[in-house]
Amino acid sequence: MKKPSLLILAAGMGSRYGGLKQFDAVGPNGETIMDYSVYDAVEAGFGKIIFVIRESFKDDFLIKIVKKYSKIIDIDYVCQELTSLTQGYTINPNREKPWGTGHAVMVAHNKIDTPFAVINADDFYGKNSFKIICNQLIDSFSKKGEFCMVGFNPSKTLSESGSVSRGVCSFNKDSLLTNIEEHHNVSLENNLIKGDNGKGERVIIDNSALVSMNMWGFTPDVFTTGIELFQEFLEEKGNELKSEFYIPYVVNSLISSKLATCKVLSTPDNWFGVTYKEDKESVVIKLKEMSDTGLYPSPLINY
Q: What is the CATH number of the domain that holds 191?
């Protein structure tokens, strides 16, 4: 029986960390945040992990990452480059970066033939989150246009070191996504979560709301329609230096054209990551507490 796949977006890893460093060691035995995601994915029932990386650090990646994880799950990778999927389009010769998260998903089209989840490489999502999305994807085999996303309670995604940006989800009575509105400068003020909405207005974000942390689930037909959308994007913005083709744009476009639905799944877990360098100490403490209480084994994985 086939299992869902997991696509981990790691193409920005080299630029953020000044070269491949397997991310910072934050676990009690030197584990990285990505180690916890891989562990949780295996436990949840995913059958394969595909990494989106850059050609510039492929050799290091194959030695340090693939070798480590391939003992516990099937591993593959694909490179996201500026020229990926751009044949026939005029690209600004001064542009250096690829085209964003939506583009990163589309470059994996030849690697995935099952329902699959997408996550950021350097974010911690939690055990329950992986189980919830994996179970939803299992129900999506042989179906088309049945997408999903895991939404987090806003208070469980804040940084203690500064403001953040969060996409606040709107959904109907059937828990189907209708819109995601990006809010900037999100922070806790006088026990209220506030952020600047799309109009630049400072508003209260209800703590019963759900926000997107880039944990998505797709059926493989997303590649056909998504690549078409990317080609349209290139025609309009391919000559720009900083234009980005994001996952929410793909989802919103397919929902509005009635080619897909996206179920919003809620999780009790806390999201965390190192948004600011000051966040690292907090992440280390949280992971040690999870290890001390037995939520995770120590060491996490016996490679």
A: 3.90.550.10
